[in-house]
Amino acid sequence: MQYSYRDNCVVFDDDFVGYSDKCFNVPNKYKQYIDSIIVPNGMIKDRLEKMSVDILETFESNGATSINLLCVLKGGFKFASDLGEKIQSCAVTRGRNISIFMDFIVASTYENDVVGHETQFYPCSNFTSFQDKDVLIVEDLVDTGTTLNKLIAFIKSFKPRSVFVACLLVKRRNDCPGFEPDCKFSFNCLLILNYSHHFFIYFVLTFLFYYQEVYRLLVHKVISN
């Protein structure tokens, strides 16, 4: 049977306009910037719960004794933090003896908000420790997939036992190959189709840098105007 990304992703199709901000608790000072709410906070939390279970079961079935989360900074920090807590909580609840570690890396392919140079990686620790370990790359938003695909190859150069990817958002694009979700490779929280002209804000971090983190307290994923 051919795998469909819809089997383990929450999918929002191109014509989905989202929900009115009147349906949710949104501070008044942010409403002027918001067109609609695509993903309510409750859905994100529930999806993180399911992702943590899937991740734990996959790593255990792979014989892993630890999970080395690799957070892609800066946007992935809050997602990685929340996901790490969920995995740890799930492991404790299930009585699983599996350790959770977190490392960080800065990856850049963008220049002035467009892909403009070769991907550069800036590890925040010595990744030689990944040898024979099980690594989970945690990324918040996958756009073209260029950075993520090169990051996977970069991490594999340290000879880890396995490399998996957890993504909050994957944008499917028609103008480039992108990153194809794979049930054996990625735990995709959400998949947004062709919303390239909008900006999305997750929890306390924003992708819309021009507003200098004006959305810092938002708990929903929204489309800004």
Automatic annotation (TrEMBL):
Pfam families tied to this protein: Pribosyltran
Domain Phosphoribosyltransferase as annotated: residue spans: 44-173
Record bears the keyword Transmembrane helix: yes
One of the record's GO cellular component terms: cytosol
SUPFAM superfamilies: PRTase-like
Gene Ontology terms for molecular function: hypoxanthine phosphoribosyltransferase activity; magnesium ion binding
GO term, biological process aspect, one: IMP salvage
Keyword Transferase: yes
Transmembrane regions: 190-211
Keyword field: Glycosyltransferase, Membrane, Transferase, Transmembrane, Transmembrane helix
Gene3D superfamilies: 3.40.50.2020
Protein name (database record): Hypoxanthine-guanine phosphoribosyltransferase isoform 3
Protein's organism: Schistosoma japonicum
